Amino acid sequence: SAVAVIDLDKPWNNADDSIWRYIPKPNATLATTPPSLNDGAIFSNGTSLWLYGGSVSLAKPDIPPIPPNGIWRYDLISSNWSRSLASGQPVQRLVSGPYTKASNSRTFYLGGQKSAWSDPAIGGAEAGLTYAVGGLLIFDEFSQQFQNVSTEGMNTAGTMFAGFLTFIPSFGSQ
Predict the structure, then answer these.
(1) What's the predicted TM-score (pTM) here?
(2) What whole-number distance in Å separates Cα of residue 120 and Cα of residue 96?
């Protein structure tokens, strides 16, 4: 499996297959290579790609469970994958949450959802259910720490998923 990328600094069109570059994900251990996941977040600081969240494919239920706060980094210079043992507040492995990258090495992931395909703790009669999860996760790339901020007052549900989040640097304070 691989991560498909396009260089958006160059002109391209949908019919041009040469625009794609593939970052391989060799079959290795989960300590060094991320598994194939659906609906996760991918963000970049220019020198690295970071992968957070996602759920296993229903077509491949034999993929081993991933620690809830697992986050993987791909170094664009050395072309190597590594798994970050992120610290800070414990977080769940979520899917379909809106996320955005800020200019200060922080990424924000709002709400999201979890199911048996993203959280190995869900099973039995609950296995087919999806749960909305509140909170605003903040991941700092330098310290590799998570922080979870309450979103209770955001709306009546206190969360959202399958939406969009945009960072506007000139609006508000950090």
Answers:
(1) 0.78
(2) 17
